[in-house]
Amino acid sequence: MKKKLFAMGMTLILMFSLAACGNPEVDISAYEGETLTIVGAQEAPVTFTIKELSEMKCTTKKTESTSDKIGRIEATGPLLDTVLKELGRSTDEFTKIKIYGRDEYEITLDQDFLKKNKVILAFGINGLPLEKDALPLRVIIPKSDSAYWIRMVNKIELIP
Predict the structure, then answer these.
(1) Which of the four pLDDT bands, split at 50, 70 and 90, describes residue 24?
(2) Calpha distance 56→41 (Å, rounded)
């Protein structure tokens, strides 16, 4: 009986560890095919779907910006470092990282900023899917100015 209970417990642990980000509440089905392109990690640009990103090791982090524009939120998605690790790279290798939104808004993060801050590529906010005007991803950098919390992120450029 103990062996059977142990096996059932191990099965449950395995099932939960395989769930996307451990947060099945974020329903990305409406935009799971949307893409993020990363330029500069390899010879050719690399594209990930939101579904592929959701299957990576993710984080769910409650935070707020240092400006009053957005307030307190809970972001769910992989860290930029996690995505780069899939490509055999890390943020430490680049002097700057440019993040672009579909609306042509962009931010540039330098090495000093990246050493002090974690960048979340959020596909969910407060346990909910992103709103249409934020798709396909939203960058959340905990405890930073909300000017860095760019939405509509579809491209990241890595600069050596």
Answers:
(1) low
(2) 18
